[in-house]
Design brief:
The protein contains 8 helices and 12 strands. The chain is of the alpha/beta class and 258 residues long. Strand 9 and strand 10 form a beta hairpin.
Length: 258
């Protein structure tokens, strides 16, 4: 990790995917980590697909997808202009073509269309929405960090609605959410999505799931599948080999497979 000073910003440059992806991000506030890389490795995409990353931050998840799948038409959607600027820098520094749009994911359809994101125009959406419940988590005094982490009562529903509007028929949504909120996700996905695949993520074999990765198909009708759990650490307490390969950019998760 290298710490740099950009004009008016205190940023670090960090390596992801075993150093294949270098990202500049703010030293304080929300920072990309394992969640973003797991989300990217669970996102199905093919060359030529138009892929939108909602709440992209500095571009971590979307750029990781583009590193894995060549020639995707990548759009990074981020409400914070400072993070969006860093996302543009990161795309250029990693030689990845990406359009970066400063936009609130909860905006109306007209705002999306004005930014070039028309209904039924995208093959895949990935998202890591703010998911902390303000009633159960101490709110950060850092406003940007609060925006990135804390969900309102309508955040999830509105983000999924935006994805449903934007996706083509049979387009795929991939998201990561806290495991204890899975009921909220399933309820929000009932409107317009099906063919769900759910991947629980556990810290280790003895712990309850801490995250769920979910892939859903717009208009899908296949039965829901719950995949074998992903353990971040194996039975001996050591880092799981599969997870380490994913984080090193050498593997993908089952949700990304056809």
């Amino acid at each position: 990790m290298r710490t740099d000073k950009a004009p008016g910003l205190d940023v670090t440059e960090d390596g992801f995917l075993g150093g294949q992806l270098r990202l500049r991000q703010l030293k304080s506030g929300h920072r990309a980590g394992h969640d973003a890389m797991l989300l990217a490795s669970a996102t199905p995409a093919r060359p030529g697909d138009r892929v939108a990353d909602f709440g992209a931050g500095v571009g971590a998840a979307g750029l990781a997808v583009a590193k894995r799948v060549t020639d995707v038409d990548l759009v990074l959607v981020e409400i914070d202009a400072t993070l969006a600027s860093l996302a543009r820098e990161n795309a250029a520094a990693n030689a990845i073509a990406a359009e970066v749009i400063v936009l609130d994911v909860e905006s109306a359809a007209g705002a999306f269309a004005a930014a070039g994101l028309r209904p039924d125009s995208v093959d895949a959406v990935l998202m890591n929405p703010p998911f902390n419940d303000p009633a159960r988590h101490r709110i950060s005094p850092d406003k940007a960090r609060e925006t990135a982490h804390v969900a309102s009562a309508t955040t999830l529903e509105n983000w999924i609605h935006a994805a449903r509007r934007l996706l083509k028929p049979k387009g795929m949504l991939t998201l990561i959410w806290r495991a204890d909120g899975i009921a909220e996700v399933l309820a929000a996905l009932e409107r317009g999505f099906g063919s769900l695949q759910i991947l629980p993520v556990h810290a280790d074999v003895t712990a309850p799931a801490i995250r769920v990765l979910i892939r859903a198909v717009k208009g899908g009708r296949a039965p829901t599948q719950i995949r074998a759990a992903l353990l971040l650490n194996d039975e001996s307490g050591l880092p799981n080999k599969q997870v380490q390969e994913v984080l090193a950019g050498k593997g993908i998760l089952p949700l990304a497979m056809p």
